[in-house]
Amino acid sequence: MSFEQKPFLILFAVVFVWWWLVRRRERSTVALLLGASLLFYAYNHWFLLPILLAYCVVNWFVARRLEHTSRPRLWMWLGVGFNLLVLCYYKYTPLLVNSVAELLPGVLPTLPANAFERWSIPYGISFYAFTGIAYMVDVYRKTTVAEPSFWRYALSACFFPHLVAGPILRPNEFLDKVRPGQLPTQPEAIGEAGWLIARGFFKKLVIADRIGVTIDPFFAHVNDPTTAGVWALPYVWLYALQIYFDFSAYTDMARGFGMLFGYRWPENFDRPYLAASITDFWRRWHMTLSRFLRDYVYIPLGGNRKGTFRTHLNLMLTMLLGGLWHGASWSFLVWGGLHGAFLILHRLGSASPLAAWLNSRTGFVSYVWHALAVFITFHCVCLAWCFFRLTNFAESLACVRKWVECDSAKMWTGPWTEPAVWLALVLYAMLTLSVELLRKWALKSEGDRQAAAFGAVWGVRFSTLALAALLAPVGANAAFIYFQF
C-alpha cells in the first residue's frame, strides 16, 4: 500500500476519524494505530507480516534484557546480529549465491536464470532494521530507556507513515512520544502538515512519475543500438531530480501524516543539489540515514580520532556499507565507493592552501567559486547515480561513456526535451515560492490583511493538491523508488 493509492487514502480517512474519537484513551489509541499500521504493511503482502513482528519481538525483548543483565554487550550484539542477519538473508542471498556460482563454478551447481525470480525482499526491511538497531544501541548506551510495553514499542517501530521508507527515527523522536502520558491528543501544525502532504503528492505524481515516464526508455536501452549516439547527461540530470522528488515526496507525506496524529519528525532533505561539496551533500541528503551511518558506523569505527589514514579508511568503509544497505548489487557498492572517494578527496582538498585562499575570497570571486563548487558537486553526485540507477555494471559504464561520446545531431533532441517535464518543475518552483512569500506576508500583517494572507496560503496549498491529481501522467503508477530498499 502506498500513500498515493486509493486504498491508503480510504484507510487513512477511517483511521484518522476513529483516532479523533478515541485519542484521549491511550490503550484504544495504541491498538488502533498499531492495527492500522499492520494492515497497511500486510496489504497484498500478508506473508511478510511475521518478519516485521519477529523484528518487533526480538528488539523489544533484547532492549528489556539490556537493562537487567550483567552482560549487556553480549545481548546488544545478539540483537544487532539478528537484525543484520535477517536483513542480509533476504537482501543479499541472491547476490551472494549468484556471485559464488559465477566465480567458483565447482562449488555450486549451475543455477537457472530464473532461480531467484520469485525471491522477494520485505518492504522497508532496511529501514525498520536500522531503526531497531538504533533503539537497542541507544538503550545499551543508556541514552534512552527500554519500553516496558511491547505494544507501545511495536507501534513506534511499525507506525505506517515512516514504516516503509523512513525517516529513520531515534527513540527520542518517536518512541518517547508513545510512552504513557505522552501520546498526543491533538494534530501538530495542521497547516504545515497539509502543505507537506500536498507538496508530497505534487512532487510524486506530477514531477517524479512524469520524469520516470520520460527517462525510463533510455535507461532500459542504454547499452543497446537503439540509443547509439544519444547524449546521456540530460537523462542523468533528470534521474537525479526524479530520485530527489520521489524520495523527498515520501518523506514530506510521512511527516505530514505523522503531524496529523500529533508527531513531528525531523526533515530528511535540505536542498541537497545546492551543496558546495560532497560533505555538504551528505548533510543535506537523506539526513536521517547520514546521521545513522555517522553515529552507529563511522564513530564506532574510530571516526577521525585515529589519524588521517584511519579517518579516510573509516569514511570509505562507512560509505561502502551505506552503498550495500541500498541494495543487493555490486553497483551499489561502486556507488558507495565513489562517494567515499569523493569525501576523501574533499578532505584532502580542503586542507590545501588553494582551498584556504578560495574560501577567504569575497565578492565576485566568492560567488563564482561557490557556483563552480556546486556545479562540480552536482556532477560528482550524478556520476555516482549512474551506478545507482543501472545495477548492471556494463550499462552503468555505457551511460557514463555517453556523457561525452554522442552524436551532436542528437544532443538537443529526444524525450528529455519534453516541455511537460520542465513546465512541471517551473510550476513546482512557483507554488513553493508563492507559499513561502504569502506565509511571510501573513506573519508581518495584522487584522484583515493577515486573514486574507493566510487564506491565500491555504488556497495555494489546496491548489497544489488539486493540480497533483489533475496533472499526474496518465498510466503512471510507479511505486516510490525507495520502497525497494
How is this structure best described in words?
By secondary structure, the chain is an all-alpha fold. The chain has three domains: 6-185, no CATH class; 189-226 and 246-265 and 418-485, no CATH class; 270-410. The protein has 18 helices and no strands. Helix 2 packs across helix 6 and helix 8 (190-220) packs parallel to helix 18. It is globular, with a radius of gyration of 24 Å. The model has no long low-confidence stretch (mean pLDDT 88).
Low-confidence stretches: none
Helix and strand sequence? HHHHHHHHHHHHHHHHHH
| Shape, principal axes of CA atoms | globular
Helix content: 55-70%
Global structural class: mainly alpha
| Biggest beta sheet attributes | none
Ordered list of secondary-structure elements with their pairings:
Elements: H1 6-22, H2 26-42, H3 49-66, H4 72-103, H5 125-140, H6 150-158, H7 160-163, H8 190-220, H9 233-260, H10 278-284, H11 287-301, H12 307-326, H13 330-350, H14 353-359, H15 364-389, H16 393-401, H17 419-444, H18 447-471
Helix pairs in contact: 1-2, 2-6, 3-4, 3-5, 3-6, 4-5, 8-9, 8-17, 8-18, 9-15, 11-12, 12-13, 13-15, 15-16, 17-18
